[in-house]
């Protein structure tokens, strides 16, 4: 059985290859049942989460990801999300590859946001506000820049020093990047794309700060109790998600306003299956606000794992 390290996975999953692979996956007929989601008590800390995420494509590949989410890990200089992936031959069930799951998860999550932005962000979007400074943040910047002409980036996080470090890292990658200390109407209004990847329970992003033409990308808030935007944001925006089954039952940014009657199921206009298959046009004008809520799906993991395995084999 082949073992792909984090470095090999990183090298294989370039966004110019990954985003088309994800598009093909949502257009295809692979199966991805609802993930198993288990809370794990952490003595003296925040409850952790264990995720088991299977998916398969008949006759080709079967895969499963085992992931953990420990929200307190950044204080230990560890990533919140850690994972491993096991890929099997779809005809025999034979294990063929074990992949480092953390970089794969980061890349496929950011790739899904880029795929959505390709339908929902304005073609001329060049300025991105990154809300959050964790491992997902630089990936989301690079992913969006693979589908839109992102040149300027501003970074906001709850810890200013982390914001400055991320801005310096992005500057070294060639972006015109700077850290901002305040998240408000002026900061948010500057951006064409606002991407959020936080562990927030109380929403840091307010809908009243949004302006016409913006695209909002929500990656954090993977539990119903977590939230990155308030009610006003989903009221003002045309709302989309990665999958209906996941986003409408797990992500607090949609679960809470749905439960409270702020929006209805019909206000969530399409998921990535519909967008990639041409069943919904996505953005219809330059002035509307679009909002994409992602919670992740095993279909994305399978597509990323297969791409990494096959590209590594080519080398």
UniProtKB/TrEMBL annotation:
PANTHER family: KETIMINE REDUCTASE MU-CRYSTALLIN. InterPro entries: NAD(P)-bd_dom_sf (IPR036291), ODC_Mu_crystall (IPR003462), ODC_N (IPR023401). The lineage of its organism: Bacteria, Pseudomonadati, Pseudomonadota, Alphaproteobacteria, Rhodospirillales. One of its GO terms (molecular function) is oxidoreductase activity. It comes from the Bacteria. One of its GO terms (biological process) is carboxylic acid metabolic process. This is Ornithine cyclodeaminase. GO terms for cellular component: cytoplasm. Belongs to the ornithine cyclodeaminase/mu-crystallin family. Pfam families: OCD_Mu_crystall.
């Amino acid at each position: 059985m082949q073992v792909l390290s984090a470095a090999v996975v990183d090298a294989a999953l370039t966004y110019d290859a990954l985003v088309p692979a994800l598009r093909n996956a949502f257009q295809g007929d692979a199966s991805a049942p609802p993930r198993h989601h288990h809370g794990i008590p952490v003595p003296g800390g925040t409850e952790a989460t264990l995720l088991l995420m299977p998916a398969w494509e008949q006759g080709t590949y079967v895969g499963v990801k085992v992931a953990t989410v420990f929200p307190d890990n950044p204080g230990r200089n560890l990533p919140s999300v850690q994972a491993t992936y096991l890929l099997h031959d779809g005809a025999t069930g034979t294990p063929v590859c074990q992949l480092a799951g953390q970089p794969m998860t980061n890349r496929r999550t950011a790739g899904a946001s880029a795929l959505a932005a390709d339908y929902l962000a304005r073609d001329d979007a060049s300025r991105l506000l990154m809300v959050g400074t964790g491992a997902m943040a630089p990936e989301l910047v690079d992913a969006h820049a693979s589908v839109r002409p992102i040149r300027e980036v501003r970074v906001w996080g709850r810890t200013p020093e982390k914001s400055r470090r991320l801005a310096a890292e992005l500057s070294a990658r060639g972006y015109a990047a700077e850290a901002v200390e305040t998240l408000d109407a002026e900061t948010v209004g500057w951006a064409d794309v606002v991407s959020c990847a936080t562990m927030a329970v109380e929403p840091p992003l307010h809908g009243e700060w949004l302006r016409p033409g913006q695209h909002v990308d929500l990656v954090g808030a993977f539990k119903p109790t977590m939230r990155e935007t308030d009610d006003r944001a989903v009221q003002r925006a045309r709302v989309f998600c990665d999958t209906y089954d996941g986003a409408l039952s797990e992500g607090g940014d949609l679960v809470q306003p749905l439960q409270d009657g702020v929006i209805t199921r019909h206000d969530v206009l399409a998921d990535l299956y519909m967008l990639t298959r041409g069943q919904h046009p996505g953005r219809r004008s330059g002035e509307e606000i679009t909002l994409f809520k992602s919670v992740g799906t095993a279909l994305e993991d399978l597509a990323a794992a297969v791409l990494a395995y096959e590209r590594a084999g080519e080398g």
